[in-house]
Design goal:
The structure is a homodimer. By secondary structure, chain A is mainly α. The first copy, chain A, has a single domain, classed as Monooxygenase, CATH 1.20.1280. Helix content of chain A is 80%, strand content 0%. Chain A has 4 helices and no strands. The longest helix of chain A has 28 residues.
Chain lengths: 91, 91
Amino acid sequence: MIKLLTNDTLGLIAGALTTLAFLPQIIKTYRSKSADEVSFATFTMFAVGVALWDLYGIKIHSIPVVVANSITFILSLSIVIMKVIFSINKK
Amino acid sequence: MIKLLTNDTLGLIAGALTTLAFLPQIIKTYRSKSADEVSFATFTMFAVGVALWDLYGIKIHSIPVVVANSITFILSLSIVIMKVIFSINKK
């Protein structure tokens, strides 16, 4: 089946999964108002990394890389922001 | 500076960041032996997604996409496995 997919379609499915993957973590963290077990370094490095993937996608003219990483950037950054806010509120 | 980087170099730096990003979460989870606040759905969807990114990278002949996502697959899967083991051990 994978052979039948165009490169862009496969990339968009992959991008949809790695992008939407962040939603359950966002919902879980928002509901529990706690993210002590979630690593700040992980999601910060991730946000910076996907910003660079965006630049890479622009340079190689890959629509799936640009679209997926732009959304992932916003989602991973929102986990970082929630973690900071909830950790301040706990003090 | 980014204009001076070749596409592959930029992709490899981006890949190094989004790949190494998982290490702090792995270390944190391994030390605390608890991952209740870490979303199972997030890291499972992520592992499947990066496996598809791998196929995409093979199809578009992008070394950075293949290398980064192969390592990310192993790391995100190890977070899923740790979460399952620690949650079983708690019962």
